[in-house]
Amino acid sequence: MKVLIIDDERAIRYSMRDIIEYEGHFVDEASDGKEGLEKVIQNDFDLVFCDIKMPKMDGIEVLEKSLSKKTVRFCMISGHGTIETAVECLKKGAKDYIEKPIDLNKLVSILNQYNIEQPKLSDAKTKKSSKNQNKNQESTNIASSLMVGCSKPMIEMFSFIERVGQTEARVLITGENGTGKEIVAKALHIISPRKNNPFVEVNCAAIPSELIESELFGHEKGAFTSAIKQRKGNFEQADNGTLFLDEIGDMSLSAQAKVLRALQENKIQRVGGEKDITVNVRVIAATNKDLREEIAKGNFREDLYHRLSVIVIRVPSLNERIDDIPLLVDFFLDEYCQGANIEKPKLTSQALKKLQSRLWSGNVRELKNATERLAILCDSQITDKDIDKYII
Fold first, then answer.
1. pTM of the prediction?
2. CATH class for domain 319-390?
3. For residue range 133-146, what is the model confidence (pLDDT) as tens digits?
């Protein structure tokens, strides 16, 4: 399939291009509406992704003028506050729309929906695609080796992780507490070209606001009372590797401003220092909060949000993947019983049904704790009565 991306944000074009090419399609780009319209008219594209707000010519005009001259499928790219406009575009002939930050599920779904016979690519492009496929096979599905699951939502997520992991795109991981966002971040790092370099994890919610800047950027000797020696921060520790900012929604606005500068300029300053230090870090962030709501409340910087969320991966809740509960329970029982050197109890089918019918507000973390409790309190068999008795 021949695809055109029209968007004035280079990071959006590049991240979309990586994924679309990974799927085996030909991709061209345009950085504004006028250039995009010219390319649509002069070429035969099967699918056009077109931003709505652009310089020189907006997406609505590109859509109208393109459809007046030829038949082509349009998928509009809508930023914050342009959803109503995107819906209006559907009435004008667009086939779909996708929101920023780009949702991988939606993007791949659109590609699959409109996929037609793919044109033959050049020898170089074909070789590149073959090389990427071999590289992907060699990874032996690292994501699925770190996370237990074979349900449809998990299989789709594993596939997205492997696509994105091999790029340099920044990723924002969203999902409820206990779903395993940190494991997704580790999988992205292990698959990436940075896999042999440091993976540094920071829990922004666990560090007091007055210490977060020193933790991230380090400090010079004498910067504050307890700074008895120079210390390198997390950005320096993760140089040439990956920095995972967990619970980014709990970071102070002051620290957010400095993280934004680090992402924009690839430079940091230690607390109490004046020297710029160049860093080369891929940042992956995670949150259980709705950052758009936090932006509206004034708790999170919108410019930082857009820097972090080039790609968004949502980790499904356990209630969305109940087919994985038998696998997870078996895995947790194995893990606990081997470590405790006790016999692994058997689970009745009625007990499994009980577990699958329950609402897991704490997700996989809660299920793991419940499984360990059952292993401790039950004998050779776990029944549905044990579920009622020991799991509140």
1. 0.69
2. mainly alpha
3. 444 433 334 555 57
